[in-house]
Design goal:
This protein is mainly β. It has helices at 19-26, 78-81, 128-134, 173-178, and strands at 4-11, 14-16, 34-37, 44-54, 57-66, 73-75, 90-91, 100-105, 110-120, 123-126, 141-146, 152-161, 168-172, 184-189. A six-stranded mixed beta barrel has the order 1-13-10-12-11-14. A six-stranded mixed β-barrel has the order 2-5-4-8-9-6. Strand 3 and strand 4 (44-54) form a beta hairpin. The chain is globular and about 50 Å long. The structure holds zinc ion.
C-alpha cells in the first residue's frame, strides 16, 4: 500500500529515565509530573529537566520524557554533539549497548551513565490495527516524502508496531530542519 499520509513529529533533545536513576536525580519516591501529552499516546513531556554533560559539552535543562523505562536514554542530534568532542551512534531507541556515556545532574543528586546517549534513528510508529490496514510490520523499511520548499524524501525508515502507538514519523531536529519542519508536519509514505 502506498501514498499514505503520515503526521511527522520532530523530537528535540530529551531524556528517558529508569526508576533508579530518576530517584537518584529527584529523590526517593519522586513521581514524574506530566507537562504535556506528546503525539504518541504512550509518551508525555515532564516538568522535570536535568543538566547533562556529554563529552566536553554541558547541556542545561534537558527535558525528561515519560513514562519511566528499564534503562535511561538520552537522545540528541548530531548538531547538538558539535563541540562535545564525541559523536553518539545513530541507533533505534532501546539499542544502547556500546553507546556514549554521560553525567546527569538533578536537584537531588547525580548519575554517571556508562552508556545511553544516542542519535535516534528515524522511525515510523504504527498502531497494530493501522499496521494491518497498511500492510506494515515491525522491521519493515519505508520511505516518506515531505513536500514544500525543502521537499525531501527520507529513506531507510524503520517501522515499529505496537497497540498503543499512533501512525507518525519521528525525526530529529537535524532531519526536521533539512525538510523545513519545525515541530509537526506531514509526509506521504511512498
Ligand atoms: Zn519515536
Amino acid at each position: 500500500m502506498k501514498n499514505i499520509k503520515v503526521p511527522v513529529e520532530i523530537s528535540a533533545r530529551h531524556c528517558h529515565l529508569s526508576k533508579e536513576d530518576m530517584e537518584k536525580l529527584f529523590g526517593a519516591g519522586h513521581e514524574l509530573e506530566k507537562l504535556r501529552q506528546l503525539f504518541e499516546p504512550s509518551d508525555f513531556a515532564c516538568q522535570e529537566t536535568v543538566d547533562i554533560q556529554i563529552g566536553s559539552k554541558k547541556f542545561e535543562k534537558i527535558r525528561v520524557v515519560g513514562p519511566l523505562r528499564k534503562q535511561s536514554q538520552i537522545e540528541i542530534s548530531l548538531s547538538d554533539a558539535i563541540g562535545s568532542g564525541v559523536t553518539p551512534p545513530v541507533r533505534l531507541s532501546g539499542d544502547l549497548q556500546g553507546s556514549l556515556g554521560a553525567v546527569l545532574q538533578g536537584p537531588a543528586g547525580r548519575v554517571d551513565l556508562k552508556e545511553g546517549v544516542i542519535v535516534a534513528r528515524r522511525h515510523l510508529h504504527c498502531a497494530t490495527d493501522e499496521a494491518k490496514k497498511y500492510k506494515l510490520k515491525t522491521g519493515d523499511i519505508v520511505s516518506v516524502k515531505i513536500e514544500g520548499t525543502r521537499q525531501t524524501i527520507f529513506e531507510n525508515i524503520i517501522v515499529r508496531v505496537k497497540d498503543d502507538y499512533k501512525l507518525a514519523l519521528h525525526l530529529d531536529t537535524d532531519e526536521g530542519n533539512s525538510a523545513g519542519i519545525n515541530k509537526m508536519g506531514e509526509g506521504i509514505i511512498i
